[in-house]
Design a protein that fits this description.
The chain is mainly β. It has strands at about 1-5, 15, 30-35, 40-50, 55-60.
Length: about 70
């Protein structure tokens, strides 16, 4: 399995964007687009679970701001 992780558009996407010759999603390739800077207020935690059909578990977390920030 392959996970492509990048930040760019200040939005969150978890998808399988590649298609095979039959037009079906390539099952071993997943793209995770995270929040880009300077507007980032969240982060993504990725857990890898070997042996599971869905290998990557993604949880979105909010950044903790210091008091008075």
């Amino acid at each position: 399995p392959i996970l492509l992780l990048h930040g760019d558009t200040h939005s969150f996407k978890l998808e399988r964007p590649l298609l095979d010759a039959r037009g079906q999603p390539v099952r071993h390739f997943t793209r995770l687009e995270c929040f880009g800077t300077p507007m980032a207020s969240s982060w993504a935690r990725v857990t890898v679970m070997p042996g599971r059909p869905t290998r990557f578990f993604v949880a979105i977390r909010e950044l903790e701001r210091p008091p008075g920030f």
